[in-house]
Amino acid sequence: MTGREKIEAAFSPAGARKAPAVICYERLCVRDHWDQLTDCPWWYQFSGDLEHQLAWRRDTIVRMPQDWLRLWAGPSRGQQDRTVIEERHEGVFRVDRRTGEEKRLTRPLVGGWNADGGSHHIAPPRLPESIEEVDASIPAAGRFDAERFVAEGQGDWARALVDEFGGEKFPLAHVLSPLWRCYTVWGFEGMMVTVADRPDLVRRACERNLATAIYNVHEAAAMGAEGIWIEECLTDMVSPAAFEDLNVPPLRRLIEEIHSLGMKSIYYYCGAPAAKWKHILSLGMDALSLEESKKGFRIDIEDIVERVGRQCTVLGNLNAVDVLQNASEEQLRVEIARQIAAGRRNGGRFIMSLGSPVTPATPVGRIALYCDLVRELGG
Fold first, then answer.
1. Nearest CA to 350 among 51, 64, 18, 128?
2. pTM (2 decimals)?
3. If pLDDT is split at 50, 70 and 90, which confidence band does 25 have?
4. Which domain holds residue 268?
């Protein structure tokens, strides 16, 4: 079976006979292991040239042999054509041929926040305090125009990868949950205070964030994605009542939209589910992914499978530090076998995965070993 066939089977009611192998947050892994994953210059990831983009992505796909294929949109052909990367003695610059404007590029910091070449979000000095200010801080998503998206070439990189690798690997794109995206509006402290004191503002922000997420889902469908990874962070720190009120309704709507386009939904909840298990299992997602035990809480794969009770597919949560990075090969083998055995108790509706991103200190060879062991032990 191909990796794609394994994942499709894992989503089916009958489950998969052979366990697929994936990692989460591939983009962070690429950032932190660039020189191990490809021989291409680091700035290829910022280039508008299709062949540059395909070159480094082909390398990472071969050297990191997981069973799904991460997709994301690129710039329009017009932007690609008018932008060039120049290597100079004093650095690497992105140059706009039309205006002559230059921007010096900086190699992404290993283990840092700048996965996309920029800095991590910092909340503005003045936080939105009214519905009007919320609306001004979250641009309206608008209606997705698939014909325009294709004609302008924003999906060219993704479609080329799907054409080349989509028969073997399951194409996947990412979106953020509506409540988690509020962090980009208020920052951490502001988000927590506003959830508690002004839920009306957060509710409005979630409505607008939902529209953005739905736009992204349609964008993913146009690129050829078959699944959507829904990222959820920080919301383990809000009360179950606030989570139910502010996040559950838009999440259900988002998952319905994913299903309407014929795609599968994977909900990744970062943190301890604790008192939110009921709300999480009510969302209607096709698959659930959780962190490993850490930060003072415990999330065991066997407990996850028991709680899910075959309602959906379960992703593994192998410990990215204690096991993938630091354990012996035999310990890695034992833990993979334990997780796969738990997945079989979910009727084979199981995808072997990590609970967190691959760490910068983990050699790429360990990722390949992990994938090989899953294939050996997973049937």
1. 18
2. 0.94
3. very high
4. 3-377
